[in-house]
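During the reporting period the student researcher (J.K.) took over the structure-prediction task from the postdoctoral fellow and processed the backlog of single-chain submissions. One of the processed entries is reproduced below for the supervisory committee.
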Amino acid sequence: MRRRWPPAVVLGALGFLALLVLVAMLAPVIAPHAPGRVAMGKRLTPPVFSGGTWTHPLGTDSLGQDLLSRTMFGARVSLLVGVCAVLLSGTMGVTLGLISGYRGGWVDDVIMRVAEIQLAFPAILLYIAAMATLGPGLWKIIAVIGVVGWVSYARIERGVVLAVREQEYVTAAQAMGAPVGLILRRHILPNTMAPIIVVASFSLATTVITEASLSFLGLGVPPSVPSWGSLLADGRDYLRQAWWITTFPGLAIMATVLAINVIGDWLRDVLDPRLRI
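J.K. obtained the following structure tokens:
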């Protein structure tokens, strides 16, 4: 029997994500400094608990930019990219999976063969190749991650649709002459959303890591836009004398991904009746 997260851990993960969303939304108001403000006289200032001052609680980077403010604004990028990319890939994948599973025949063959061809290439190589061609950009990275990520949704949706379309209520709707669009929208799609929601929650965590990885390589958002990945890249040359530049953005990524995965596990427990037996 699979071990479940204690309720206190799940509530803590939900609370952390709620706080993260609030901080991201209010970053322009609550951030102590402008994220791009350069102060060379204060460069590499340590955190307050390591000899610094409360003016820069988490210290500053090599340009004297406040690390707390940049981490707050980096949350906006990670959450925006994660949510928008998941919505895009989920919409594409669910739509194609519905069509593939319900229609069958050559339509199913074409969609699944395209999915298998894409799966033959490592996703990270597709991301790097696409972003190297298009250049850095917030909406570009959302589009690339969203388009590449549709396959998992389509395969899962197709599998569920193949089972649901044989149910009696679907057969009855077909016998009554209901339009295909109505059958898909009212009778099939609502009964296939549970596994899709679980997949989306885990995909959100993967997308946060992907965005940070691409920004670390200089292929994500532009350098002028603070993101957790670019903060890691800025601090890699100062690991010995300014460990805080990479530590705090790294902790933010770790905590966010962990919280999302905990919630994903909880959603799987709630939405899969087999796990409640």
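The committee noted the following: The mean pLDDT is 90.
J.K. will present the remaining backlog at the next meeting.
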